[in-house]
Amino acid sequence: MTRSDLIEAFADRFPQLQRNQAEVAVRIMLDAMNGALVTGQRIEIRGFGSFSVTYRAPRMGRNPRSGERVAIPEKRTPHFKPGKALRNSVNALPLQP
Fold first, then answer.
1. How far is it, in rounded angstroms, from Cα 92 to Cα 78?
2. Alpha helix stretches (DSSP H) within 1-97
3. Which end of the chain has fewer CB atoms at under 10 Å, N or C?
4. What is the phi/psi pair of residue 52, to 5°?
5. Cα–Cα dist 31/24, whole Å
6. Mean pLDDT of 8-22
7. What is the C-alpha separation between 61 and 47, in angstroms, rounded?
8. What pairs with residue 79 in β-bridges?
9. What's residue 44's pLDDT?
């Protein structure tokens, strides 16, 4: 699902909103989530999951082409942990080949 698909689903679910209002609502929600993660806050949406920021320490890696050792700097990465309801609903789907 893309952002455009999310906006369309939001507009279809709430017919009293025009498409541009649905777009603004989705943008505000995503900007708020982005801002919270940037400041190191944790986001928890009951029944869906939680977003947090994890710290990755600096380490030494290898360039796969040359085999040369490369220093990988520290960084923070967003992490998503699905909630129980989301895990159960995804696992209830039949597996597709």
1. 27
2. 3-13, 19-38, 84-91
3. C
4. -145, 170
5. 10
6. 91
7. 38
8. 52
9. 96
State how far the Cα of 83 lies from the Cα of 43, in Å rounded to an integer.
12
Structure tokens at 28: 């505000």
Q: Rounded distance, CA 76 to CA 37, Å?
A: 10
d(CA 89, CA 83): 10
36-72 pLDDT, tens digit per residue, is 999 999 999 998 999 999 999 999 999 999 999 999 9
Encoded tokens for 86: 């989301």
- The HSE-up count of residue 29 (CA atoms within 13 Å, CB side) is 11
- Written as six digits, the tokens of 77 are 């990465």
Rounded to two decimals, what is the model's pTM? 0.77
Query: CA 34 → CA 22, 65, 77, distances in Å?
Result: 18, 35, 12
> What's the sign of the alpha-carbon dihedral 38, 40, 42, 48?
positive
Q: Are 69 and 61 in contact (CB under 8 A)?
A: yes
